[in-house]
TrEMBL record:
Encoding gene (name): RvY_01200-1
GO BP terms: positive regulation of cell differentiation
Gene Ontology molecular-function annotations: calcium ion binding
Organism expressing this protein natively: Ramazzottius varieornatus
Top-level taxonomy: Eukaryota, Metazoa, Ecdysozoa, Tardigrada, Eutardigrada
Any one Pfam family match given in the protein's UniProt record, by short name: EGF
Keywords: Developmental protein, Disulfide bond, EGF-like domain, Glycoprotein, Repeat, Signal
EGF-like domain location: 1-16, 17-68, 69-109, 111-148, 150-189, 191-227
Disulfide bonds: 6-15, 58-67, 99-108, 138-147, 179-188, 217-226
PANTHER family noted in UniProt: EGF-LIKE DOMAIN-CONTAINING PROTEIN, NOTCH 2
Protein name stated in the entry: EGF-like domain-containing protein
SUPFAM superfamilies: EGF/Laminin, Growth factor receptor domain
Taxonomic superkingdom: Eukaryota
Amino acid sequence: MLACDCRPGFVGNHCQFRDPCVIQPRRCSNGGTCRAVFLALNGTTSSDSVEPTFECLCKRGYLGPNCTTVDFCAAYPCDCQGHSNSVCRNLENGYACECRKGYRGLWCNIDIDECTLEEPCANGGTCINTIGSYRCVCRNGFKGQKCTEVHVPCAENPCQNGGRCHPGSSVSFPDFCECASGFSGSHCEVNIDDCIDNACQNGGTCQDQVNGYTCQCSRPYGGRYCNEEIGYE
């Protein structure tokens, strides 16, 4: 579709409309920038048959259709020391800081000690305050964020490849695995690469096994470590 390069003061595909920002040049206050916009018609944007309206692009510190409302939140007054612990809400003559969970104060910069307001840890668990939250150190036999779940040591046996599960003393010191020879990892899920320090000689190729390795020898060598010269017919 062809479009025209309009003279100043006119807009539209065919420059058929007066620019509303020129007709009333002071629509936007406090240094806001006015621009012509075309409203949607039947779900589409038209610049042929519908006269344009305007919108104001406000400078920082102002908002509203004509940039006449002071944006008290523009300077991020609720942020303290670089931490965003709140959401700023503009009021008619000021602002209010709505604190995020775990914080309080005029600027939401005071950490709430949840351990002193309530007893969040059940079944004798110990509450430890953290920044913006808390955590529970559960007694032996319990687990979960609030120590409300019963913990049966090694009930699910997370140890793989023949590893042996040992009960932990608490959730802070959980169950742990004693791995069978040749395996490692928190759940004994890793087959140790025994080829790292292999003794294959004379160009032999190491092939990792469980708790050991074998040497794939090249002619004319053989033996466990390819260190024997063998005659081939």
